[in-house]
What does this fold into?
Amino acid sequence: MTEPKSLLAQLEKEISSTSFGESPAELYDPITYILANGGKRLRPLLALLTYQVYQSDPTKIIKPALALEIFHNFTLMHDDIMDKAPLRRGKSTVHEKWNENVAILSGDVMFVKAYDFLLSVAPRILPNVIKRFNECAIGVCEGQQIDMNFEQQESVREEDYLDMIRKKTAVLIGFSLELGAILAEAPEKDQELWRAFGEKIGVGFQLKDDWLDVYADSDKFGKQVGGDIAANKKTYLLIKALEKAKGEDQAVLKNWLNKESFDHDAKVTAVMEIYEKLGIKTLASKKMNLFFNSAFADLEQLSIANEAVELLKSFSHNLINREK
It folds into this structure.
């Protein structure tokens, strides 16, 4: 059985040795740039670990697994344009280093290249893989559009927010696990269980990110806490606070949300005080743990129980318990 660290090294080797094209350089250099710019390689790694539950050599599916990483980075490249983000993983975003038109075209090529990497799949299962990949990709786009719609809405319902993060973030994690099971030709029921597991932990991960932005240790978090509060980002915590706040708390919260000029630390402190009064920290913790616990309960229904399943569970628990 191959450990995650070893699989990650093999993924990195495959990425660094892959040429996506040479000319025109402005089209292909950004692809190499964004793929070399770090990242956890979580999605291809999850596919390899799931494949390993049923088959002995996960390196056989490195190419289709990397389709997930290529697609994921394509979405990041285009998201950065829409968000006007100057940095990605501590370095200039593609549209800042080159320009928006270059980023759009390079991203388009990445989407096509993802299909190229999927073509290494056995012909008998390729149609199902493409069908499921397309459904996943459409879900990600729907989630991004819904998230942008939220920016124009005064209020967002909890169920709408959870559906948005499921589509924008979690469906790709779910498909990553499902892809590993499909390629291993696992029972169809197991494929569905891995997808459900991935989607639930994916939602839980985003809820954890919301939580960490407010309550993380800033030294471990690696960035200033309270960024979502300062930006009025409609996270689970803010949505619940707006839902629960009454009277003076509601007035104070809305006053901070409506201020165009403010001191960052003063706003974060004031909003956190309201969160504390309303028990938002506990509410958010309970919600994320509800998704995590439900995800692991799904795995109890798998048709197989072996060391590779336990390894994947342990890997997932480590992700859940992260502090940054």
